[in-house]
Amino acid sequence: MTVQQEAGVGDEALEVWIDQDLCTGDGICAQYAPEVFELDIDGLAYVKGSGDELLQTPGATTPVPLTILRDVADSAKECPGDCIHVRRVSDSVEVYGPDAE
Question: Which residue of 10, 38, 50, 72 is most buried, as measured by CB atoms within 10 A?
Fold first, then answer.
């Protein structure tokens, strides 16, 4: 079973965001998916935009490329702060993270 089938997302577009209030700064997310996550000088993780810029607005989201969905999902599962949220764009239902159904 693929990670898409596990979450019931098929080929649906997904987005990810980080709750910096819960971020512990471990950097596990950046190790799993450096294409999407990066630690800033404040020691917290942020998602990156299309030009690799850090999106520092609270609740900022970035698309999850299906090619690295497993890495992003593993980041959410392994995050000690439970601060990574992956949701479907179509209905905003969380598929990975602390609020996943």
Answer: 72
Amino acid sitting at position 61: T
Q: What pairs with residue 86 in β-bridges?
A: 16, 96
> Backbone phi, then psi, for 76, in 5-degree steps?
-65, -40
Which is nearest to 36 in space by CA: 86, 92, 99? Answer: 86
pLDDT higher than threshold 60 for residue 54: yes
Instruction: Say how far apart CA 39 and CA 12 lie, in whole Å.
Output: 27
pTM, rounded to two decimals: 0.88
Handedness of CA 49, 24, 87, 33 (dihedral sign): positive
